[in-house]
Amino acid sequence: MLSKVNNFVVRFANVNGTGSASANYLFAKAIFRMGIPVTPKNIFPSNIQGLPTWYEVRVSEKGYLGRREGVDLMVCVNPQSMPNDVLSVKSGGYFLYDSTKQLPPQLIRDDVNYIGVPLMEICQQEFSDPRQRQLFKNIVYVGALSALLGIEFEVLEQLLSEQFKGKEKLITPNVRSLKLGIQYIHSNYVFPLDIRLERRDLIGDKIMVDGNAACGLGAVYGGAAVVAWYPITPSTSVVEAFEMYAEKMRIDKETGKKNYAIVQAEDELAAIGIVIGANWNGARSFTATSGPGLSLMNEFLGLAYFAEIPAVLIDVQRTGPSTGMPTRTQQSDIMLAAYASHGDTKQVLLFPSTPKECFEMTASAFDLAEQLQTPIIMMTDLDLGMNDHLSEPFEWDDSRKYNRGKVLSAQELEELPYFGRYLDVDGDGITYRTIPATHPTKGSFFTRGTSRDEYAAYTEDGAVYARNMDRLLKKWNTAKKTVPAPFLYQKKNKSPYGMVFFGTSTYSAEEAMDIMAQENITFDAMRLKAFPFNKTVEDFVNSHEKVFVIEQNRDGQMRSLLINELNLNPEKLISVLNYDGMPITAYTIMMQISKNLSPAKTLIYYQ
Amino acid sequence: MTYIRSTFRHPGLPKNELGYTTKEYEGAISTLCAGCGHDSISGCIIQACYELSIAPHRIAKLSGIGCSSKTPTYFLGNSHGFNSVHGRMPSVATGANMANRDLVYMGVSGDGDTASIGMGQFVHVIRRNLNMVYIVMNNGCYGLTKGQDSATADEGSKSKKGSANPFQPVDLAGLALELGATFVAQSFSGDKEQLIPLVKAAIEHPGFAFINVISPCVTFNNNPGSTKSYDYVRQHIEATATTDFVPEEKEITTSYKNGTGTDIRMHDGSYIRLEKLAANRDPYDRMAAIIALHNSRNRNEILTGLLYIQPQSTDLHHTIQTSNRPLNSLGQDELCPGSSVLEGVNGELR
User: Fold this and answer.
1) Within an 8 Å CB–CB cutoff, is residue A267 touching chain B?
2) The pTM is what?
3) Which of A501, A513, A553, B74 has the most neighbouring CB atoms within 10 Å?
C-alpha cells in the first residue's frame, strides 16, 4: 500500500455558476503554496448556470501531473449528481456532504467514510444575504477540508489577502467562513485523515498557470500586433489573456493608444482572413480557435500555404466530431490540421505539453511563420489550455531577436537586379517577399491563390505549376530542420519497446513509464514537438521492435500521420488511445500496453 | 491567346503632381471579354488615382474571386495586390488595414462575391466602418461559370438562355445604407464622367466607402430582357446629380446659384461638388437616400450618383483606439515587454 500522505485525489461536485470555482482554486493553490505538486482539473458542462460541474485535484508527492482515476475524497455539494458521486468514491475513501439535510439511505455505502458538515445551516446562521450564504458555503467546506487534510491556515489567509487586495472588507467574512468550517471539524471529527498533506519543498520556482494564458502571453512576447478571433470554447481565454496582458504591456506611453489591434470577427473564416491580411501587410498576427473553427478555416489555410503568407493559429482542441463535447478534451484535430485545405497541402504543427512550452512555442511560432512563410498551427487542447498546471517559469532572453525571415527592404530592392517573389534564390525553397509600400517602384507583386510563375504572374502552364509545387516540397524539407526537434528521453536506446507521445499525453505517459520501470519493463521514449517529422523521428521508430503511440483520439491520428509521412510499417506502431473526453491516465496507458507486451504481462497500478 | 500591348506612350502625356503619367497607374492587359464593363471601371480607378496623385505603392488592391476580382491585375501595376478567396476580400482587407492604417485600400468585388458567398463579410466590414473603398462590379450574373443568375439579378430579368429570374434581387446600395455605411454611391460602368469623381471621393472618404457599379456582362447578360444590359441601363439610369471632386488645394472659383450646387467638404479640406442636385435630395440624409432608392426602383429606374455621405466619418482604428503609427512599423522594442516584466508575471503565478 502506498503512503497516503501527499498522494490522493479530491473531487468537488458543484453546481456551475455558484461561485465554487474560486473556492476550489483556493484549495488547489494552498497545496501548491505548501510546496506539494498538485494538478487541478475542471470538468465542466457546456452551460452557464445550474448544471453539475466537477473540480478534481490530484496531489502527488512524486510529481505525477497527469489525471488519476479513483476519488479518495469527494466533496459533494450538488444534490443533482450525488448518487453518481457516491459511487465514484474509492472503497475506503471519504464522502464530505452538506448534512443540513439528511443523506438519503440509498446513498449510504458500507465501504465509504461519510463526513457531514451542515454547510447551509452554518451559513444561514452566519449570513443574512442569500448570495453570501451561497458563496461562503464554498469557503466553509474549504475550511473543513483544511482541518481534515492539514492545510496550513496561514497559507489560506495569505491567499485570501492576495485575492482581495483592494477589497479588504471581503477578507473578514472569508476568513470567518474558513474558521467556521475548521471549528466544525474540530468539534465533530477526528482529524487529520489518513489521506493528508505535509509541507514539502518540491515546487521550487515553478508557477501555476493555464496553457491559454501562456499562449496569450507568448503572443504578446512574440510580437503579435493584430489579433482576430471568433469566440469558441475552449480557446476563448487565449485572446482574453492576450488582451489582459497587452492592456498592461502594449500601451503607447505618449498617446495612451494601443500598440495592438484585436478584431472580434463575425466567424472563423473572417478571423483567419484578417490574420492573413495582416501578415501579408507585415504585422505579426494570430488567431485562436478549436476544431469547428479549424474546419471553417481550411480554405484560407490552403491560400496561405500556396500563396506563402505567414500566419499563426492556436488550436485548442476539444472533443469532436461536429460540436462533439465542447467542454471536454481530445487530441483529435491532428489530421485536419496537418493537411488542412484541398489540394496537396501540408501544414506545420507544434505540440506544446506544458504552459511554459505554450508560451515559448507561441512566441517562436511567429518567427517560424515568417521564416517559413506559411501557417504555423499550435496544437494544444482543452486540458492544457483551460486547466491550471504546475509549470517551469516563463523565460525570455533579452538578447533574443525576432526573426522576420526573408523580407526585402527598400535598400535591398534598390540593389537587386530583379525581383521574383517565388524565385528560389537560396535553394532552400524559401523565397523573398516584400511588404506593401516598401519601395515606390520595385517589389510590388500580386498575391494570389491561383497558380503563378516565379515572378508571381498568373500561369496555367502545367510545368511551371509543378515546379512551384516541388519547390513547396523543398521548403517542407527545410522546415523539418527548422521546427523544434523531438525530445528523446534517453541518450542511447535500451529497450526493444518505444513510446511516442505528445502534448497533454506526456504527463501520464511519463508516469506510466516510471511505474513500469519499477517492474523492470523499460521503454525508450520520444516526445514529438512538431510536424513535419525529422530524421530523428524516423530513426526512433525504425530502431524499435514495437512502438506505442499514445494519443487522445479514436483513430490513432498521429500514428496514421507517422505511417503516412515516414513510410513506416504499420504493424510496428501500436495505438494507445483514450477518447472519452477526459485526460488520459497512466492506468489507461499501462493497461493497453500490457496487452501488447510479449510475453503479455499483468500490470498493477497502485494508487 | 497571348496579348501584346505596346509600351509606347505619347511623350507629351500629362503628368500629375508626382511626375507620373497614367502609365504608372496601369496594370497588365485585361483578359476579360472585349467590351466588358469591368474594364471601364478599371480605367476609372486608374484615372482617379492618377488625378489624385496617389503614389501607386501607397495603394493596396484587394479582391475575392470572379471576373470582377480579376481586375486588380489590370490596374495599378505598381501596387501590391491580393486576389484572395471567394467572398472573403473584406476580411483580408481588414487585416491589411489593421497592419498599416496609412495605405489606401482599394477593394474590388462582384455581385456573386459580395451578395452571395461574401454577404457575411460585406455586412461586417460595413459594420466596422473599415477605411477602404469597396467597389462592386455588378453584372447580375456569374461570368466565370458561364452566366448563371446572381443574387442581384432583378426578378424577371432574362438571361442569355432566355429564362426569367424568379427571385427578388439583393439591392447592395440599399443594404449598405441600411447597415450604416458612411459613404454609399451607385454608378454605371458606361458613365466615366460620374464614376471617376465618385472613386476619387471614395478614396478620400475616411471610413468605409461603397460604390455599386452596374457593369454589363457583354457575353452572358447583355441580351434583350436583361435589366443589366447596356441598353437597358442607359434607358433607365437616373442621376442624383452631376458629381465632381475638387481636391483640397484647388480654389473654388465658380459660384453657384442657390439650389443648383452643393459642396460636400471632406475631412482633408477637399470637396465633392454636386451640381444639378435633384430636387429634395440631401446627401447627408440617410433616410432620404433609402426612400429615393426605393422610389427609383419602383419606377424601374436605376438611381446613380452619391446617395449618402457622412463626411466626418471615423474608422475602425479610431473605434478600437489603435496607435497612430502603423502597427507593422512597430519594432521589437515596442512589441516585446522583456524579461523583467516577465519575472513579474511569474511572481504573480506563484
Assistant:
1) yes
2) 0.96
3) A501
B1 touching A, CB under 8 A?
Answer: no
pLDDT digits (tens, 9 = 90+) for A400-442: 999 999 999 999 999 999 999 999 999 999 999 999 999 999 9
Interchain contact, B327 vs A401, CB within 8 Å: no
Burial class (CB in 10 A: 0-12, 13-18, 19+), A103: middle
How many beta-carbon pairs under 8 angstroms link A with B?
A: 228
Please report the pLDDT score of residue B138 as a whole number. 96
Residue written as grid cell 496537418: A338
Partner residue facing B321 (CB), from A208, A258, A394: A258
CA distances from A454 to A422, A474, B85 (A): 4, 15, 21
Put simply, whether B327 touches A (Cβ < 8 Å) is yes
Compute φ and ψ for A407, nearest 5 degrees. -120, 125
Whether residue A217 lies within 8 A of chain B, CB to CB, comes out as yes
Closest-CA residue of A relative to B24 is A441
CA gap A578, A576 in Å, rounded = 7
Number of H helices, E strands in chain B: 12, 13
Give me the domains of chain B, ranges plus CATH numbers.
22-321 (3.40.50.970)
Q: Cell 447580375 identifies what position?
A: B140
Find out whether the peptide bond into B72 is cis, omega within 30 degrees of 0. no
Nearest to A444 among B79, B84, B338 (CB): B79
What is the fold, at CATH topology level, of the domain defined by A487-594?
A: Rossmann fold (3.40.50)
Instruction: Give the torsion sign (CA, A60, A66, A70, A73).
Output: positive
The per-residue pLDDT for range A380-404, each reduced to its tens digit, is 999 999 999 999 999 999 999 999 9
Tens digits of residue pLDDT in A490-499 = 999 999 999 9
Cβ within 8 Å, pair B84-A271 = no
Beta bridge partners of B311: none
Domain range summary for chain A, segments of one domain joined by +: 7-188, 209-391, 410-482, 487-594
Is the minimum CB–CB distance between A269 and chain B shorter than 8 Å?
Answer: yes
Transcribe A444-490 into DSSP letters. --EEESS-B-TTS-B---HHHHHHHHHHHHHHHHHHHHHSPPPEES-
Interchain contact, B339 vs A395, CB within 8 Å: yes
Whether B330 and chain A come into contact, CB under 8 Å, resolves to yes
Chain B residues lying within 8 Å of A271, measured CB to CB: 91
Q: What are phi and psi of A389, to 5 degrees?
A: -130, 145
Tell whether ipTM is more than 0.85: yes
Min distance B315 CA to chain A CA atoms (Å): 13
List, edge to edge, every strand of the sheet that includes A285-289.
A261-264, A226-229, A285-289, A311-317, A375-381, A348-350, A530-531
> Of chain B residues 74-133, which have a CB less than 8 A from chain A?
77-85, 88, 90-100, 102-103, 120-121, 123-124, 128
In chain A, which residues have their Cβ closer than 8 Å to the Cβ of B94? 228, 263, 270, 273-274, 277
User: Which CATH number is A209-391's, of 3.40.50.970, 3.30.365.10, 3.30.70.20, 3.30.420.40?
Assistant: 3.40.50.970
Neighbour tally for B146: CB within 10 Å: 11
Equal CATH topology for A7-188 and A487-594: no
**A252 touches B: beta carbon within 8 Å:** yes
CB A25 within 8 Å of CB A33? no
- CB contact (8 A) between residue B335 and residue A225: yes
What are the phi and psi torsion angles at A277 (to 5°)? Answer: -60, -40
CATH pick for A7-188 out of 3.40.50.2300, 3.40.920.10, 3.10.310.10, 3.90.1150.10: 3.40.920.10
Q: Is the peptide bond before A234 cis (omega within 30 degrees of 0)?
A: yes
Interval B256-260 mean pLDDT: 43
